[in-house]
Design a protein that fits this description.
It is a single chain. The chain has ten helices and four strands. A four-stranded mixed β-sheet has the order 2-1-3-4, with helices on one face. A hairpin with a 2-residue loop joins strand 3 (52-55) and strand 4 (58-61). The protein is globular and about 50 Å long. The protein has helices spanning 13-24, 39-42, 63-73, 84-114, 125-147, 159-171, 175-183, 185-195, 198-201, 207-212, and strands at residues 4-7, 29-32, 52-55, 58-61. By secondary structure, the chain is α+β, with helices and mostly antiparallel strands. The chain binds glutathione. Residues 12-14, 36, 48-50, 62-64, 98 line the site of glutathione (GSH).
Length: 213
């Protein structure tokens, strides 16, 4: 069978999550670094978002759908649990992160530093100051979520954690979020434990690459 192809910039949090799934399950894959809205991406994603995946004649978009396909198609540790409660909690946390937390922490807070609309390229202080209270609240939500079992869903690694880790990795480079994460003891411990996994180490992207992509 053909190798799995993941297409998207390594700097994209969603692309990194798809790559981490391959690494966790030891799936042979290639990463084709193409930006959103490039022809290879638009051929698969109706709205030009990354990542997209090709496996033989099968094409797929949306990171969670890609993760589910890879999890069901390949051996290795289950990242989408089948036990009903852990499965539902995994869904819950992927949904909370993708529909709310990503918007606050990445698209608003982080992007105000790395893609500011300020004309001179300086951080958008007004936007940052406005979103910092929400950043703190959402980091506290995540802190409480991992306090009990050490993971977002139950007591073992799931795709919910893989989906979150690339976001936390970026946030730790920016002062207000770094401070909030440091104060969130359960979340800090969680990050440190998961950051040493080979799947995370092998998919690291320098921040400057994110700025360039
Ligand atoms: N729901 C999508 C979101 C993917 C997404 O937003 N990717 C960003 C890069 S991290 C992107 O393609 N942005 C370009 C755009 O929104 O047009 C998924 O889970 O794959």
């Amino acid at each position: 069978m053909a190798k799995v192809e993941i297409t998207g910039p390594a700097a994209s949090t969603y692309t990194r999550a798809a790559c981490m799934v391959c690494e966790e399950k030891a799936i042979p894959y290639v990463l084709k670094q193409q930006p959103p809205h490039s022809p290879d991406v638009c051929a698969i994603h109706p709205f030009g978002k990354v990542p997209v995946m090709r496996h033989g004649d099968f094409e797929l978009c949306e990171s969670k759908a890609i993760a589910t396909y890879l999890d069901l198609s390949f051996p290795g540790p289950r990242l989408m649990p089948t036990e009903p409660r852990q499965a539902a909690l995994t869904e819950q946390w992927v949904s909370l992160v993708n529909t709310r937390i990503d918007a606050t922490l990445v698209r608003t807070y982080l992007f105000s530093y790395i893609f500011p609309q300020t004309g001179d390229g300086s951080p958008d202080r007004k936007a940052i100051d406005a979103v910092v209270p929400a950043v703190r609240r959402e980091i506290e939500v995540l802190d409480r979520a991992v306090a009990k079992g050490g993971f977002l869903a139950g007591d073992s690694l799931t795709f919910a954690d893989i989906n979150l880790m690339p976001i936390l990795a970026y946030l730790r480079n920016f002062p207000e979020a770094a401070e909030a994460i440091a104060a969130a003891k359960s979340l800090s411990g969680y990050y440190d434990r998961l950051a040493v996994r080979p799947s995370f180490q092998k998919t690291q992207t320098p921040l400057r690459q994110a700025k360039a992509s």
